[in-house]
């Protein structure tokens, strides 16, 4: 599938390609983990994104590096990794 140019309507589904929006990522995380409050979710995805960008960690490696309970770390890492695949890795 060819990447498409950003349009204003895309913002409904995700941030513009090449960007990271912690609020959007936290909402994505909470869609599968509604027990997490929004502020906690934002902090978790920001921590994951920082590790992803500075140490190039993805998936299980990212989950293992996160300082949180293993199931939560796996969920947070999955969201961060998916965002990277959709918004950073595509050229």
What report would you give on this structure?
- The protein is mostly helical.
- 59% of the residues lie in helices and 0% in strands.
- It contains four helices and no strands.
- The longest helix is centred in the middle third of the chain and has 18 residues, at 38-55.
What are the defining features of this structure?
single chain; 91 residues; mainly alpha; 4 helices; 59% helix; globular; disordered N terminus
Quick recap of the structure?
The protein is 59% helix and 0% strand. The protein has 4 helices and no strands. The protein starts with 21 loop residues before the first helix and ends with a helix.
Q: Which spans of ≥5 residues are poorly predicted at pLDDT below 50?
A: 3-12
Q: How far apart are the termini?
A: 11 Å
Which shape, going by the Cα principal axes?
globular
Helix fraction?
55-70%
Percentage beta strand: under 5%
Main beta sheet strand tally, sense and closure: none
User: Helical region count?
Assistant: 4
| SSE order, one letter for each helix or strand | HHHH
What is the CA-based Rg, rounded?
A: 13 Å
């Amino acid at each position: 599938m060819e990447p498409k140019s950003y349009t204003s309507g895309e913002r409904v589904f995700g941030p513009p390609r090449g960007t990271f929006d912690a609020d959007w990522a936290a909402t994505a995380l909470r869609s599968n983990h509604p027990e997490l409050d929004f502020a906690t979710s934002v902090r978790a995805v920001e921590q994951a994104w920082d590790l992803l960008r500075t140490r190039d960690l993805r998936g299980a490696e990212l989950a293992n590096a996160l300082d949180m309970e293993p199931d939560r770390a796996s969920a947070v890492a999955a969201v961060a990794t998916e965002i990277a695949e959709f918004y950073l890795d595509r050229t």
